[in-house]
């Protein structure tokens, strides 16, 4: 059913007139022009489409527009802070924690959410948290290095 | 006619000429009299670089950035030769109107084969610029130095002129013969860990991939697909889809597509299409394929024939015979194939996720009946290729649909289509029979390859009596009934299958002789680079010599690919109850000659090893007849964080050898490495890939 739905997107109020059953991924990419969120599998199996809803990572390919009404959505485009990149973004840059970069937005958002709730995770905690995120290039060790580095509070710095 | 000759013929003989992108070199080779001629690398350095008045250098290459870091490594090579800062170089990659021709980004060729071309262009351009500076400054060439693109007298920067001033936004018309690139000893930038140029865009979500492109009036397309390979469309009813608002149905021969302004709208429309198909009858599946392949393979090619096999076996104390098999595997990049096509008059531009834009240009031209100069392919960032994006069927579809719809069209495969249309690594059957003396010298080697292809099919061990036959290939030319679907290059094609067989087999021989597998290898290797990586790996791993199976779960494998030598050792733990294999650590030593960006090369090695865990342990395309049963990542398991072992990677410094291939080599040894470690842990020898829990348990049970 087409409805007018409001939510907060990267700190700004947005209103979308759309079928409330549509998946957030396509609304973000196609209606709102935010293409940093990627399609990978369409069934919540790869993590490439991960965004934060009220700070929690969700798979936007299987999250309906209705489910985010009135809530706060953060995409990779909204992670940057006034004083620069988010520490996780800085650490990903420093460690080259990506190759093709296609899974990177989801990896960074999920990691940022982890550190928000658990500022001092173990390497195993991070691996466990990211287990549902697929990376075909094999950047896993560097992603773990980057998140652990970001967790020290030092960030990247490069 | 060369461009220089052409220009001279017009009477324009001045030093410099105005250069604009529209008059780029790619077009020049699109000669109307030779519409689909296949060009080579142009000899004029202007094809590869362009210097702006502010001194910024645009580097133009037909290679693309798939994640492998060539955007950075190629920029480094050009910056090194030109003596400009890396930050001054902007990369334009994979745009067929602007960039010089290139066959494609695969085969670990970018640095190994294309690197010298780019370096040569940079070296010649630098020499010309220095000569121009010498004339301008009235200082002999020998007394000039270049720092960050500024030419000045050695030890005196008061007299200087920049590249930007010398070129003044024009094309450099002067050329010099036989300018040698820098010797390795003069490198300032190459050989140092260097920050990737694509980093910031990729961590901020700004990096654009094919499906991220947007144009006014863009329509998203979903294409009706056969349920199984070889099915014929009998009837189709699109009325329910057509009743949906905003849906456009396009039909052209076998192509039925649903177009909508939104991607999910197109998908919904497709779900409403009712189609009847006639499916072919086939009993072929992922189990019986290994009996089927030898029966349907073409005539074998002889790749090696040396000495006398019978005499070799006679001299042997032990003879081992075994057959090694591997399943079809998918490329499974996280970015599915995508392309956006837009027409302007009789010219089409396609933004495509592809490893080979110039090949796609030809494919689009041929499929649509166009001359190549009517087609432009632009390659944005590619979200992984691994050989699976070596062509561009989705680009052809997008171009066709855009023409039929009269609007720009974006095609993005969904995950199921990605598995269905993929060109899999071929299933293979490799039969090996070999023997060695009591002292451990291999005397006979008889290898029969079916399906895998020729690369690395011939043993790298020094065996006096050997024969290698190979039938079928990932490159095509297979009989129609051999594979039930398309096969193609998969990261280090042929070599993964062949190395798995060879290095498993050598281990079996060593075990039969009661010899330590490393000592046995060292005894039979002659290539110094291979001996060096193996010895170094043993040292770094802390290898303690013992015949397998020792119960420790340690394994070794070495290999050669694209001029690069690799040796690795691994430690695994095998859970006998579940059949699960956990890789605890891998030590890798790699000699790839000169290393351009060490951090980038390590990244490729890490990626190769981790991707290798997949084909070794879980990856397999299940199928029945033409039905690909892998539909998504729940039916096709690729490596995850919990699998990742501790990695210790060493790149041997070898300035005597020019830069070799780096994108693939370590992936070839992972199959045998883990098979050998599993054997060492349990005494069970697995001869089939993947070594998933079911096959590990079966092997343990068979062993008793």
Question: Secondary structure elements and their pairing?
Answer:
The complex is a heterodimer of chains A (158) and B (704).
Chain A: E1 2-9, E2 12-19, H1 24-31, E3 50-53, E4 56-59, E5 72-74, H2 87-95, H3 104-117, H4 123-129, H5 140-151
Parallel strand pairs in A: 1-5
Antiparallel strand pairs in A: 1-2, 3-4, 3-5
Helix pairs in contact in A: 2-3, 2-5, 3-5
Chain B: H1 3-9, E1 16-18, H2 25-29, E2 49-51, E3 57-61, H3 70-82, E4 89-93, H4 110-137, E5 144-147, E6 150-153, E7 156-162, H5 163-167, E8 170-172, H6 199-203, E9 219-223, E10 232-237, H7 239-242, E11 248-252, E12 255-260, H8 263-271, E13 274-278, H9 289-296, E14 301-306, H10 309-314, E15 318-326, E16 338-344, E17 347-352, H11 357-368, E18 375-378, H12 393-405, E19 409-412, H13 415-421, E20 428-436, E21 442-450, E22 465-471, H14 495-513, H15 517-524, H16 528-541, E23 554-561, E24 564-574, E25 581-591, H17 598-617, E26 623-624, E27 627-628, E28 646-651, H18 670-682, E29 688-689, H19 693-703
Parallel strand pairs in B: 3-4, 9-19, 15-29, 17-18, 21-22, 25-28
Antiparallel strand pairs in B: 1-8, 2-3, 5-6, 6-7, 9-12, 10-13, 11-12, 14-22, 15-20, 16-17, 16-19, 20-21, 23-24, 24-25, 26-27
Question: Could you characterize the architecture of this molecule?
Answer:
The complex is a heterodimer of chains A (158) and B (704). In chain A, 32% of the residues lie in helices and 17% in strands. Chain A is α+β, with helices and mostly antiparallel strands and 158 residues long. Chain A folds into 2 domains: 76 residues, Ubiquitin-like (UB roll), CATH 3.10.20.30; 65 residues, [2Fe-2S]-binding domain (DNA polymerase, domain 1). In chain A, strands 2-1-5-3-4 form a 5-stranded mixed β-sheet, with helices on both faces. Chain A is globular, with a radius of gyration of 15 Å. The model of chain A has no long low-confidence stretch (mean pLDDT 95). Chain B is of the alpha+beta class and 704 residues long. Chain B has a 7-stranded mixed β-sheet, with helices on both faces. In chain B, strands 14-22-21-20-15-29 form a 6-stranded mixed β-sheet. Chain B is globular, with a radius of gyration of 28 Å. The chains are: A alpha+beta (158), B alpha+beta (704). The interface between A and B is large, with 58 and 58 residues.
